[in-house]
Specification:
It is built from 15 helices and no strands. By secondary structure, the chain is mainly alpha-helical.
Length: about 290
């Protein structure tokens, strides 16, 4: 069971926190009915993403064995057979869909679309330059959209924009760190890396970092948003976002981290504390007006 659990990558489940964003910003976090539905959606996305990770590890088993870190994954190291992993992926994916459609038909279709998109990504799309990172970003966006659909609230276009830009930021950083870590052998592990250069990725990171900061700042200062949320002070949370992005860049460029976004975030106390303070500030501004 331990190799199976490791292959499910529970440390990556933090990515599904985007499912909960509409719950927080729609001011329903303290409503038990909404919280239960969003919590269920979070769990189902975690399950579907784990099925996707199993598929990716099966497809990439040979290239993972040439990677200094990924070769320790259960499938690549031989601790977990590809056949057992395939069966587990199918069972987990099929187990997640019925309760998803029971929660909400529209949510179920989004979860199914997420799974099918990642199958296409694993089979082909991850070999298409730039589109590979955009597909990763779309996965985060689908989480946010699903989180709104499952509690039947309208998703803000600002939330969509901020989610996409933040996801692109992490995606381009991930590609950069893979390229730096593997150096001349990068293409042997993942052939799409031959299409990237550190300079190009640094430019993309700069573009999406600036875009994420500006879009979040405009969101918090928008008169329409202030009217809808009932507070004009959401801009007080901007410093936390600035620090979070700059801290992440520090870890990338000064400490050579960022190849695994989840591990980078969970392994850095400063990022965790900053994220907690951001959440507390948002919570206080939205729920104690």
């Amino acid at each position: 069971m331990l190799p199976l659990i490791r292959s499910l990558r529970p440390n990556q489940w933090i990515k599904s926190v985007f499912v909960l964003a509409p719950l927080v910003f729609s001011e329903h976090l303290l409503d038990g009915r909404y919280l239960l539905r969003s919590g269920g959606a979070f769990v189902l996305f975690c399950l579907m993403s784990s099925a996707v990770y199993l598929l990716n590890d099966i497809r990439d088993v040979e290239s993972d064995r040439r990677h200094p870190e990924k070769r320790n994954r259960p499938i690549a190291s031989g601790l977990f057979s590809p056949g057992a992993a395939s069966a587990a992926a199918i069972v987990i994916a099929l187990s997640a869909l019925p309760p998803a459609f029971l929660l909400s038909t529209s949510f179920g279709w989004v979860l199914l679309a997420y799974g099918l998109m990642n199958v296409a990504y694993s089979l082909y799309l991850k070999h298409v330059v730039i589109l590979d990172v955009m597909i990763i970003a779309t996965g985060y966006l689908l989480r946010a959209i699903a989180g709104a659909l499952v509690i039947n609230v309208e998703i803000s276009s600002w939330l969509i924009l901020c989610t996409v830009l933040l996801a692109l930021f992490m995606g381009f950083v991930k590609r950069r760190q893979e390229l730096i870590l593997l150096e001349s052998g990068a293409g042997g592990h993942r052939r799409i890396l031959d299409e990237y250069t550190p300079r190009f990725l640094d430019q993309m990171i700069a573009v999406v970092t600036a875009g994420a900061l500006v879009s979040y700042a405009l969101y918090t200062m928008s008169p329409d948003v202030a009217l809808k949320l009932g507070t004009p002070h959401l801009n007080l949370t901007i410093p936390f976002v600035i620090y979070g992005l700059l801290r992440y860049l520090y870890l990338v460029y000064a400490r050579n981290q960022g190849g695994n976004p989840s591990s980078t975030i969970l392994g850095d106390p400063s990022l965790l504390i900053n994220g907690g303070l951001w959440f507390l500030a948002v919570f206080a501004l939205l729920y104690f007006k």
